Amino acid sequence: MSLRPSLAPRYVHDCAPELAAGATTRLVPQTAAAFTQPARAAAWRSLPSTYVVCADDPATRPDVRREQAKRAGTVVEMACGHHPFLTRPAELAAVLRQVG
Asked: What is the pLDDT of residue 34?
């Protein structure tokens, strides 16, 4: 089951049209448990972690992004939407190389 077309702009608004079309066919709804069920284990508790704050992400509220980022050892902000691996792959790869 793919994502409803009405939700696509929240996730791929900054993607080139051909990337957005391909990406939205692979997006699926996420279970509500992901937002309500406590995690039994979290690697960020014991391993170095980096949180990439996607500053122009309309899918995740800014306060939620900032709260999640507090758990990481390193926080990097990128001027991008929800999927930087689609819209800014070279910039994201550079971030990952720098922190890895």
From this structure: 84
